[in-house]
Design brief:
- The protein is α/β, with parallel strands linked by helices.
- The protein has a single domain, classed as Aldolase class I (TIM Barrel).
- It contains eleven helices and twelve strands.
- Strands 7-8-9-6-5-4-3-2-1-10-11-12 form a twelve-stranded mixed beta sheet.
- Strand 3, helix 3 and strand 4 form a beta-alpha-beta unit.
- About 2% of the residues have low confidence.
- It binds S-adenosylmethionine and iron/sulfur cluster.
- The site of S-adenosylmethionine has 20 residues, from strand 3, strand 5 and helix 11.
- The site of iron/sulfur cluster (SF4) has 12 residues, from loops.
Length: 341
């Protein structure tokens, strides 16, 4: 996608380093590990998933150092992801240290919730504000199939534990995949009628290693929305933060909301405010483009804070405008679990 000319001279207000298009980056998504206790069919191949050697991963000290430097540069929002972030050793300490940096206003996590039942209270106490939980269906048998072995009952307990711990508002992420869970979207949306939750429907993205699922599986947000409107009547629009990629709606009279995240049919690159840190210490500039800036090797070679800050600043400046997936580009190099979705 080419940047529209009207966008080029604008500078997004707020904190954080700026890219060459004037967009400010204040949101860092941090992959804590490339490993996972599920094998979701749109994220990892059934067999042959290759994980990186542990010595290539950032240590806790390296990770905390990079996050502290990003806080100094004006990043205010952090999200922990993976792979599955809850399997990272010392997670509670990592949360506590990250939240303690001056300038960090919000720390959240995206998780499959399998382990949240026992972790939610400690995570909240350590400073985790919110969680987004990935759950594609309420049917335990289908759930097991889509996650290749996941236990729905434990995930549901994890969601309850997060809510009881006050990690609200609860947001659920559902990747809609044709002939897998596209018929289940109304059941997911119905959860919002008497709960103050947001159920978000994501378009599947073509990531490395799972291309076949993408090509057969894409269901656009428009299609999901019309399926919901057949069931519930016209959805009502809800205004949302412009940097939130979800377009938000409500079933008439419902307590909660429904979000549509449409990276394929309606990319939101124009308002992008985020970069990612991979578990092996690369600043990933765009989810769907291979451009990365290696921070780990310079850190291990003895780089000073000033040199690291400069590398992050110049990396952000080079952030690509957007992806070209709708035009047929397939060039992520890494899978979603290695980048941190
Ligand atoms: N394991 C955690 C989880 O599943 O929530 C965090 C990592 S996961 C890679 C982050 C998000 O990416 C999840 O909401 C997941 O559903 C989503 N995701 C994974 N592969 C995807 C794909 N090919 N297209 C769209 N979303 C995807
Ligand atoms: Fe694991 Fe999350 Fe990928 Fe599923 S989507 S395999 S839970 S990293």
């Amino acid at each position: 996608m080419v940047a529209p000319v009207s966008i080029l001279p604008q500078n997004t207000p707020g904190s954080g380093p700026r890219d060459a298009f004037g967009r400010r980056m204040n949101y860092l998504r941090i992959s804590l590990t490339d490993r996972c206790n599920f094998r979701c069919l749109y994220c990892m191949p059934a067999i042959g998933m290759k994980f990186q050697p542990r010595d290539e991963m950032l240590t806790d000290d390296e990770l905390i150092r990079v996050v502290g430097l990003c806080a100094k540069l004006g990043f205010t929002k952090l999200r922990l992801t993976g792979g599955e972030p809850t399997i990272r050793p010392h997670l509670i300490d990592i949360v506590r240290e990250m939240k303690a940096f001056d300038g960090i206003e919000e720390l959240s996590m995206t998780t499959n919730a399998l382990l949240l039942g026992r972790l939610a209270g400690d995570l909240k106490e350590a400073g985790l504000d919110r969680v987004n939980i990935s759950i594609d269906t309420l049917d335990p048998v289908k759930f097991k199939m889509m996650t290749r072995g996941g236990r729905f009952d434990l995930v549901w307990q994890g969601i309850q534990a997060a809510e009881a711990a006050g990690m609200t508002p609860i947001k659920l992420n559902t990747v809609v995949v044709r002939d897998q869970n596209d018929a289940d979207v109304a059941d997911m949306a119905r959860l919002t009628i008497d709960r103050d939750w947001q159920v978000r429907f994501l378009e599947i993205m073509p990531m490395e290693g799972v291309g076949v699922v993408y090509d057969a599986g894409l269901v656009t947000s428009e299609e999901t929305k019309s399926r919901l409107e057949t069931e519930f009547g016209a959805l009502e629009p809800v205004s949302a933060d412009p940097s939130d990629p979800a377009r938000t709606w409500r079933i008439p009279g419902a307590r909660g909301t429904i979000g549509f995240i449409s990276p394929i049919s309606a990319p939101f690159c124009e308002s992008c405010n985020r970069v990612r840190l991979t578990a092996d210490g690369n600043l990933r500039l765009c989810l769907l483009r291979p451009d990365e800036v290696n921070l780990r090797d310079m850190m291990r070679a003895g780089a000073t804070d000033a040199e690291m800050l400069q590398r992050v600043r110049s990396g952000v400046w080079r952030k690509p405008w957007g992806h070209r997936v709708a035009e047929g580009e397939r060039n992520t190099i890494r899978g979603m679990s290695q980048i941190g979705g």
